[in-house]
Amino acid sequence: MGHYLGLASSLAGSFLLGMGIPFVFFRIWQSDQFGNFLSLMFTGILLTFIFVGIAYLIALLNDNKVKGFGIAIVVWLFMVVLYDGLFILLLVAFEDYPLEKFSLAASFLNPVDLSRIFVMLKLDIAALMGYTGAVFSKFLGSSNGIFLSVALMLIWIFVPLLAYLRIARKKDF
């Protein structure tokens, strides 16, 4: 677990520096958008910890490094690009049915969508996100939606990490 925390902290620090330095030059702390900037940084750090946990789990489950790297790239590509496309296809295909609960549940299964929802609800422009953001805003409201999306992202951090620790204890290195 120490390796995980070290790597994730290093990557989160790199993210903070890479995103923070340009905004320091533009004096973001003097702007009225400083809170929104902090929420963007917060979700970026959470996503860093989420994907490092998933990467550790993939690495532990695959002895072949090339295969593990390929699986990691496919998982990332699926969560960032393909998931939204499949989600939209399902919404269009079943547009005659009530899909509010389905869209809420489906958005819980993708940490990238959760981070988008968090930022959109924080900006109070969830309607611009489309169907999922509107549903989140309607059913959960702004503050409850923000709390739920952060709680679900924390679950996305701990589930792969706990699975990694469980498998690592049983694995004979």
How does this model look, in words?
- With 173 residues, this protein is mainly alpha-helical.
- The protein has one domain.
- The chain has six helices and no strands.
- Helix 5 packs across helix 6 (131-170).
- It is globular, with a radius of gyration of 18 Å.
- The two termini are 16 Å apart.
Number of helices: 6
Count the beta strands. 0
Tell me the structural class: mainly alpha
Integer-rounded radius of gyration: 18 Å
List segments where confidence is low: pLDDT < 50 over at least 5 consecutive residues. none
What's the quick description here?
Helices cover 83% and strands 0% of the residues. With 173 residues, the chain is mostly helical. The chain is globular, with a radius of gyration of 18 Å.
Detail the topology: elements first, then pairings:
Blueprint: H1 2-25, H2 34-61, H3 65-93, H4 100-108, H5 111-123, H6 131-170
Helix pairs in contact: 1-2, 2-3, 2-5, 2-6, 4-6, 5-6
Tags for this entry?
single chain, 173 residues, mainly alpha, 6 helices, 83% helix, 0% strand
